[in-house]
Amino acid sequence: MVETYQRRSALAHLGLVARAASSSTAGAGVIMSEVPHRTIVNVRGTASDVAFSSAVQTATGLALPSAANTVSNGGVWQIVWLGPNEWWITGPDGEAESLIEALRANFAGQHAIACDVSESRAIIALKGAKARDVLMRGVSLDLHPRAFRVGQCAQTGLSRANVLLHLVDDTPTFEIYVLKSFSDYLWQWLEKVAADFNLAVEA
Amino acid sequence: MTQVNRLPHGGRVDSSKPLRFVFDGRPYEGYQGDTLASALLANGVVLVGRSFKYHRPRGILSAGAEEPNALIQLGQGNRSEPNLRATQIELYEGLVAESQNRWPSLTTDVGAVNSLFHRIFPSGFYYKTFMWPKTFWMKYEHFIRRMAGLGKCPTEPDPDRYDKLHAHADALIVGAGPAGLAAALAAGRAGARVILVDEQQEMGGSLLSDRQAVIDGVSAAQWVANALAELRAMPEVTLLPRTVAFGYYDHNLVSLMERVTDHLPPTSPEALNQPRQRLWRVRAKDVILATGAIERPMVYIDNDRPGCMLASAAQTYVNRYGAAPGKRAVIMTNNDTAYQVALDLVDAGVSVAAIVDARENAEGELVATARARGIEVLGNHAITRVGGKLAVREVEVRRLTGDGKSVSSDGRTITCDMVLSSGGWQPTVHLFSQARGKLKWNQDILAFVPDKLLPGQNNHSVGAARGAFALTDCLVDGFAAGTAAAHAAGHTEPAGSTPVAGAEPAHSPMREMWVMPSGKPLGHDGKHFVDYQNDVTAADVALAHREGYRSVEHLKRYTTMGMATDQGKTSNINALALMADLRGVAIPEVGTTTFRPPYTPVTIGAFAGIDKGDFLDPIRKTPLHSWHEQHGAPFETVGQWHRAWYYPKPGETMHDAVNREVKAVRTSVGIVDASTLGKIDIQGPDAAWFLNMVYTNAWSKLEPGRCRYGLMLGEDGMVMDDGVTSRIAENHFHMTTTTGGAARVMAWLEDWLQCEWTDKKVYLTSVTEQWAVIGISGPMSRKLLSEVAPDLPLDDQSFPHLSFRDGVVAGVKCRIFRITFTGEATYELNMAPSYAMHVWRALMQAGEKYGITPYGTEAMHVLRAEKGFIIVGQETDGTTTPQDLGMDWIVSKQKPDFLGKRSLQRSDTKRPDRKHLIGLLTEDPNEVLPEGAQIVAELKDKPPMEMIGHVTSSYYSPNCGRSIAMALVKNGRNRMGETLYMPYDGKVVKAKVTEPKFYDPEGARING
Predict the structure, then answer these.
(1) Is the ipTM here above 0.85?
(2) Res B1: pLDDT
(3) Cα–Cα distance between B981 and B992 in angstroms, integer?
(4) Phi/psi zone of residue B886: left (φ > 0), alpha (ψ -120 to 50 degrees), beta?
(5) pLDDT at B115 over 70
(6) Cβ B833–A7 below 8 Å, yes or no?
(7) A31-37+120-201: CATH class
(8) For chain A, first and last CA: distance in Å?
(9) Considering the entire predicted model, what is its pTM?
(10) If B192 and its partner were Cys, which of B267, B491, B579, B624 is the partner (CB 3.0–4.6 Å)?
(11) CB distance A159–B620 less than 8 Å?
């Protein structure tokens, strides 16, 4: 196989690693970084079907999140609620093929599917005391800590891009999943907004 | 330079901070805390503008957002802004302002001749005067634009930046007067998330102009300071001064406009480091409308002379700004509130010559106090003349007679330099009405008040905004509403008790009096202005009535009453009351015009925020975008995608580059970035059934590993998309769509699955961006691929046309489709986008010896046109059937059903003479027809001629050595060999009808 250094993340052309090296996060209101590669497997099935939910649990060790717009976190895998019959299973880079294989084996006889979408999304991490101030300029959802809590996710518009927003911790750290084709636009947009909040770039 | 009308004490301005400013070229000085209006008044400047139609000299009428007269051109160069209200402009050091609508100067204005010809400028004069002769409209328009314009638009781009954001609140409180502050305290103390907005620089509303009020045992000013300090300390409370709530939309969405730096010198570092203005979109669980009320001017003759002002405005200038609007006032009123104004003026040392009260028996506590202070009160009187043109000099008053429609014959002249009037108060119901709340008429206060809410909206009008003007009512209302909003949102911490107002004087009843008689018919020897900004008089309302424009909406459009920047804030009620009187009906029967956003004008830049230039719309980029950029490719916009258009070498024109790229594909090998193709993963036991339904051809027998072209129709039988779909496994397909149609097709397919075919087991996943796609096409493509994918058998037996294989290319796992859009042997390599650049470079390197040539969308279009392959959206326009395209071969005759099948049986879709896709070969092989050119069969000397179709695609084809074109032409397939004509650009081009296939019609080249 090709050397991994030949692999380019969605925002590789922005030279973020070099920028991070020359910028300090001390005192930054907002810190932005690219999460370069992550396994994302789209799963569809009937939530109420025990065979389906246990098939997912067997493969990931995780129960499907029961509440809408929440993420269950198991350390290696996370399951992201997207819709009443749709989830993402996210995890370490390079695991999509084996996960799908395991899921398909467990799905035998059911109408349930797994589909690799790892490479379709870029992930931008946005964190810091002013992260909400940046996001509220493009997201119409209520991001108040009481309204959008750690472990919640939402598919929404961020400025003019569709994103999946996940509040990872109460730093707060938001992970923003966006189609790769929009990632350059979204990064530039966030960076422009964040400029008013003392932005630092992290590798 | 001296501030001649600045009061020696009082006011909230800071006399230790003088500010210099320039108005109409003359330098003045004001104080920190002044508005431009208060500073001008302090300097004795009463003439500030000319009116819209008659160019009448005008002064400052109000002290707030309702100002119709004092419209100002503020600032210079590309920061210049027209039509701002002097009453809302905060003074800053170095401010430069100009009056509008005057030439050459305010005092000698040429346009004022309009006033002499007022008989030819009555209401509706646009409609009447400029209708004939029609051909003169252009000349009239030029004249109208020059005469009617107010301020000047800057010609350069706006240099400022703007911010916009979304916010949420348990309670959005609009207005920080007594009611709003009480509401904020109650809600904030209970723990609710509160946003409190006020349009003025300082919060406090009417309390800032009130010298009498006592709340909780302290002065109003002290209570405001205490309340604001407490609110500032609450982390969940956001205070937004200088912020107008200008629009109220569905489900409690309210738009706010915050003036962040407008009060600072525009080029100061503090201003340049921040956005100029900020647009807030607030979704609030409850909206508390504490918007107060706006005073109505009285409609007396020549009530627009500079020095004529709202009574409450004079009170504000004196009490809040320490600026006297004049030295000697006459007050005209029909209610008690003007009496407090008189008392405050006298307290401040401004003399009040008389209170002219329209009420027959003006009595009561305030009247008695005024009399006791030595102010002359003329009950049952009217102002019948205003002397002075550029400023009020005197008034004549007469006794009202009979029912108040006429006056006594003898008058008395009173010397004064200002006329302050109060016709009562109209609650500021704009936001309530924008929220589609219903109003009702309250005869006691002669005003519309909020009545019923529209379901889905949740707001509460409190205090003056609902017509409860007493301070104690404002505090009680506000506190209760704030408490209720907090409780509804689940916040119940103790909020203390309702603030208590000190004793207030009781008010006597008003007199309903909509126009003051002058002893002469309306419109004679003077004008009774109703709408100052649009120069609409009481006589104009009567004219509209006579001419049949009696509905309030007609009245508005006919007279222009209530339009422009002030939206009739001081005029609407007077106008519709006059109309009610003329029609002999009650005021509520006339009704109000519709209240629409914005409450006050909003800068367009604030709506855009940073979303301009490259942020206007996202640019979608492929993983290979930077390579295309580095190799000089211009980009073609396809949907939001930017696709490489062509790759010019040094010195090449676009034509040269495209010809070279097109030739290379036919002779050697070309490489193209096709990543933007839409891709949908289709899985489930009913997947093949599903494809049979959404495509016109049959899919059941397609073997795994094979690909097929499909055409998708709408229910109307018209072509909506096309693409190649491959069978990955028995129940698993990979569909491709057009680049531009991807999202639409995905939504369309989901619609059918989720709404119609709910029993079918199929799941769709968009995988457009999971796969980057690199196409290599041309006779050398197989050789090239064999070198970078040595383990993949590529012979026609192992890997035939219309099949796919998984393999490793340049070390990267790929799914390779053997399909073609050029007619040449083509491999479409699909791989993870993160490896696309590596594979592309590997192919470029390995292909160098074959002269591998990157080609863009333009060459791709020429190549497919040479083969006669259609592009949906170019050869089709939503009225094109497969048969029209000559693609009957792809429409199954056996399948029981598919989307669009029934529509293809309609007599119109079966017509043999519909527009058909044909080829066109021009007589001159170098003539390239313009796409869209109209086609005629019978040429005439000049139009009209019957147009029988249009050119859909047209290119120069280097491989054919001539131009080629496709066209949709009526009965086209039955015209083979005919000559058709395309008249354009003053010439006529002849072309012969052919089959729409120009190169390799037998398809011999697909195997290389």
Answers:
(1) yes
(2) 47
(3) 9
(4) left
(5) no
(6) no
(7) alpha beta
(8) 26
(9) 0.94
(10) B491
(11) no
